Fold each of these.
Amino acid sequence: MSLSTIPVSVVIPCYQCSDTIERAVASVAAQSILPNEIVLVDDCSQDATLEVIYQLIKQYPSGWIKVVPLKANVGAGSARNAGWAIANQPYIAFLDADDVWYPEKLSLQYTIMHNHPEVAMSAHACVWPNAISIRVDVSKMPKIKKIKPVEMLSKNRFSTPTVMLRNEIPLRFGDGKRYGEDYDLWLQIAFSGLIVFYIDAPLAELHKMPYGEAGLSAKLWAMEQGELEAYLNLHHKKKISLTALGFWCVWSLIKFARRIFIVTLKRTFCR
């Protein structure tokens, strides 16, 4: 482990992840420049997750990993809020317990945000399951793009393990919201007038698809409801008009129908 650190708190919600959390933390420990701290939030797991976490922290310097054991299962969004609440660094980076970062992730993303103090949140590309891993050329600074709020409406462009934001942002994940809570927060940030950047470099590797992997239709519908609620929240806060709300809800439902069709085909032909 490198001795140099950057002012970043890494927040990882943990639920039934005893088989993967060690891999996730190892990818943080393998960063070219380490974050100041990791906050692991156990979301009342019923397996050996908490036991594994306590054994895991013994492998790293004292105090580098903080543990927040929740007494009730509250969902990933609320678990992230719990970790965010005790994070003491100016920047927050999110990682999921079954995903990993490439070693250059924190160094590049922090450097970009540090050099652009006007940016409240940034995200980057990632590698999905079964895709060919693409490593970043660290000798070149990746391309960055300012994201307009309207660009966020067509789809959730930001996977949570790619997001870094400023701790001072006065917005949080919706408490108790279990589906679409990340997209809802990204929209709230973008439409609040805060500046958002996209970094065109794959700096994380995800080990699950965004939808339909384990896939019950009921879960897909819950995810769809979460997206519709995110649009509705924007309308309630007068960030988008009623006409825009109707348009994007119809657009979302069309995407949902397409997902159901694709998942149904996969189940039919992969048996």
Amino acid sequence: MTPAHVDVTAARTFLFVPAHDARKVGGALASDADAVILDLEDAVPIGSKEEARGAAARVLAERGPGGPALTVRVNGMKTEFAEQDLEAMESVRPDAVVVPKSDRDAIRTASTDLALIPLIESAAGIEDTAAIASDARVKRLMLGSLDLAAELGLGLSASGLELAAARWSLVVASGRAGLAAPIDGVYPRHTDVEGLEHEAEIARRAGMRAKACIHPCQVPPVARLFAPDPSAVEWAERILAAWGSAGGDAGAIDVDGEMVDAPQVRRAIELRAAAALGNPARTEG
């Protein structure tokens, strides 16, 4: 059987890399990231947009079996580059397209049938989160915390309180739409491992189940912190075994005194998929 690429709905580490920088792309692909985001937007100078687009298409066209999910962050839907980006991706079929500055209008005007990961990084995006999540192409939501903070004039602190409402908006919208739990934004200081771990733990407790990274060195600690707890994986296996024995359409069943129906089954499926990635599990609860 041909090995499958990592599913973006199960991935917990998403590594951004400028698509026009072959050395950095090679490093990203060789890392342990579950998903690589080939960036055509912020990390690429205006004069290198065409080069980056072609480079991303070649990486996708030449990918082998297995390995990380390959996604592409296109330029914003209001820019002159967006339509060309989407057209170039149609033939090489990335696992998802990351849409920056996502709001209701941006998702509506993204003329593609490819899977989407909307990047929610504006006040309009937060306000439109539920509508964005309801689009059938959307696989997962991602928080663009730095751009959102800049627009709203937020001074981000170690407590994470400034982003609590934004994270909650994405978590609730994802749950309501039946999506995998959302992806937290990047931590900008890649040499500050302690700060990264602290922010990742806050995001995990807030309901995020993945985090974007800007450097390969951020991938191992993020993978560890977002790995499912072993006891949670055991719970998922019991739930799925009982659900399967009931025929998978029982409506609701009792498992060890717990009432289980479709939402718990969906969560159990997510936990099993996350555990299958094989990254070291967290040692904390």
